[in-house]
Amino acid sequence: MALGIIDDLLLEGGANFYLTPSNLSWLTDEHLPALAEIGFGRDAIEGFRALVATARQEIPYYMNELERHLLSLSSAAVTEESIAYARGLKSLGQGLPRPVEHFVGEAMVSTIHAALGDAVVQQAIKRVDRSLPAYQEAAAKTGAPSFDDSTLDRLSSLY
């Protein structure tokens, strides 16, 4: 289950980072008339962007939660709390603009991209065994939240 979550994080994160960034940077003024017709005008866009900005400040918390549950899910003593966490990763909640898996994955891909480039992002998405090491290296270079080395060792033993 833990490896599936790691794989999904980078897949969903890559889709969000490259195709539909959470900050809606791809939305320009030319899109506003069409969006206003369906009730998603400038105020809604700015409200969503504010939600994203607030949620980004909480990335360290979400990374800590992810690490804690990945450790549980990779152990013989999986907790019910971690199973519930895994089930909820694709759901909206916790005041996030997107599901946890999408939002945290996007932050991870953004970090890898900023520090190591597109080729490393692509390898991390293609090969789950490169995902966390690539993120860890990028986090060290950028100051982003990182995983404990013992967590990486534990999860690496699952590959």
Descriptive keywords:
9 helices; mainly alpha; 159 residues
Q: What features would you describe in this structure?
A:
By secondary structure, the chain is mainly alpha-helical. It has one domain (2-21, 59-156). It has nine helices and no strands. It has helices at residues 2-18, 32-37, 42-56, 59-73, 80-88, 100-116, 118-126, 128-142, 149-156. Helix 4 crosses helix 5 (80-88) and helix 6 (100-116) packs across helix 7 (118-126). The longest helix is centred in the first third of the chain and has 17 residues, at 2-18. It is globular. The model has no long low-confidence stretch (mean pLDDT 88).
What is the CA–CA distance across the termini?
12 Å
- Total domain units: 1
Outline, from the CA principal axes? globular
Q: What would you call the structural class?
A: mainly alpha
Run of helices and strands: HHHHHHHHH
Strand percentage, roughly? under 5%
> What is the CA-atom radius of gyration, in angstroms?
17 Å
Question: pLDDT below 50 for ≥5 consecutive residues: which ranges?
Answer: none
What fraction, in percent, of the residue positions are helical?
55-70%
List the total number of helices.
Answer: 9
Q: Main beta sheet, described?
A: none
Average pLDDT: 88
Number of distinct beta strands: 0
What's the short version?
It is built from nine helices and no strands. With about 160 residues, it is mostly helical. It has one domain.
